[in-house]
Amino acid sequence: MKKHSGFTLLEILLYVVIGGITLVIVAFSFIQITRLSTTFRVNNELNQTGKNIIRQIQYNINNNMKDNKGSIISPIVGGGISSLLKIQNNTSFVQYNITQNSTDDIIYSQSNQSDINLNPTNIQASSLSFEQINNQDQNSQNGIMQAIKVKFTLVYKKPTLSGNEYDAQKAFETVIPIEQAKQTSFTPILNDNPIIPAGQSPNNNSGLAYSLRKLSGINTSANKFSSGYTGPAIRVRRDRGVDQTESDIGFTKSGDLDSVSLQNFVGYQNFLTQSEDITTTRLWTLGNITSIADDTVAPNGTTTAERVSLNIGNVTRSINKDTTLTNGSIYTESYYVKANNGYNFVQLAPTGTGFTGNTSYQNYDISTGQLSSGQLGSSSGMIERQSTINSVGNGWYRISLSATAAANGSGNITLAIVNSSSSARLETVNVASATNSIYVWGGQRHISSSLTSGPKTYQQTGADANTGYGYVTIWYDQSGNNNNAIQDITANQPKIIDGITGIVLQNNKPSIQFDGSNDELASINAFSSASPKVFWVGKRSGYTQSFLARNTTYATLTLGSDLFTSYYLNGSTTTATSSSDSLSNLNLYYASGNPVSSSQFVIGRGAIRLNGFCSEIMEYNNSPATDSVQINIKNYYGL
Fold first, then answer.
1. What is the set of domains in the chain, with CATH numbers?
2. This model's pTM is above 0.70
3. I need a labelling partner for 215 at 20 to 30 A (CA). Which of 169, 355, 400, 497 fits?
């Protein structure tokens, strides 16, 4: 064989082949090394970002809670993109929010300041949720240790032109304790001014103490029996139609009523009846939908989700239910939806006379392969955070949209099946087979405080809409005498939560509302006092209305024919009369005198009953430090 340049042709061919294999091996190894390096870098970036977000959330929580100037008022359990942690500064009433926006950023916001994005632009965050945890802690001042559980998922999206990178995500969960050192200003009033005098034992004639705040802490003295109370504040009945469950509501570590547990237990108003039975027999309007069947697992684990089959033709496909809307009110409507048979897009659009002139809409991409938080599509007439989408697992997404009613009338926010994420408002969809379908479950409509407040925790309804109201069945006595104020008759129970406006508040503190008709709470035991001294915080709508009663004697501030011989208002040393109190403001009342025969102590009863509010009542049969008690009450309620 003829040689060429010292090599045979075979040798040259072998060299080329072997060299090529070597290059391939080297190139393959380089790709693997690059991929491993990228994996390490992406995972490290997710870990560091997650830890940094947790540190920032922890700092914002505890920094705004320091010196007891702040309180956590509304983490929403399992809220996803609608999850919101509100921290309120009780001194200046500034509100701080930690939430997730529609572009998958965790946002820290404060009144009159620019939002702060807690995650970097190349990493998105989803499924943010907060949960309040109250654990018993015998070393803490009032036996309760408060913490916040935080959950979120970080998603890394590879750059468009990157060939070696890939999408990745990592879930984070942690519990952030509320630092005890920053909660030390809670001063239980009954520790310094006990109901039971030193050296005496509890009995049925030794006074009482009702409040929506913690009145006593650790029992620091054997003689101060009243300081040992560790029970709840109130027992509450929730009104959800057939659901009339009751639950005890306790206190936060800072001594306030546990408003979060209260609101989460009672729930929020859902105007849509039969929220999980979306059929025409339940008065739902189904536009060009042939059938509804319960044949798949819903987000709550029950087989109650509706398979919505579409009829043949090129028409609009929609689901809605009208309710009466009030002009100027903001309504948020939400549904759980799941793609099926290639139908991956839905839309929400306000319709009806209540939304007259409203042409806005929002499209939602619920196809598989989207980010874990879902994907908003195109829209019209919308602002940021007015619509939300969030994954709840197993292919299900919860979508919502808020709209303002422009007139009194009927209306709804229609759920429509559409062709794409850029579909026009209520466009037609051409269906060739009647087997085509999507899944729908759990409709909810409630009144919101703003267009960007997001959906509330889902509440199931039956034949009646979930009213979301909460009523007090027991107001627990914190004096140590177990003389609880009780109301067993449903119609006579005063209100603590309004289905529309939420927890009843006076001076930004929870208060119990009496209707002036039949609401009252009566003590368990009958007792008498030679010289009662009573402090209470309340507001009435008329000068002849009574706050308190013993037998047929009522506290109305009418001297000479009243339950007490003297009244003083808001710390004044001047004797008050029947028209001295302000009907438009919360007042502190101090009353004394008039011994009575053995009888029940009844809150809200009178010849003219209380149409107003009551936040706290303490009856002493000894001589408390009056100035000290009134200063404590005035400071807490901002009087």
1. 11-182 (no CATH), 189-237+467-637 (2.60.120), 280-441 (2.60.120)
2. no
3. 497
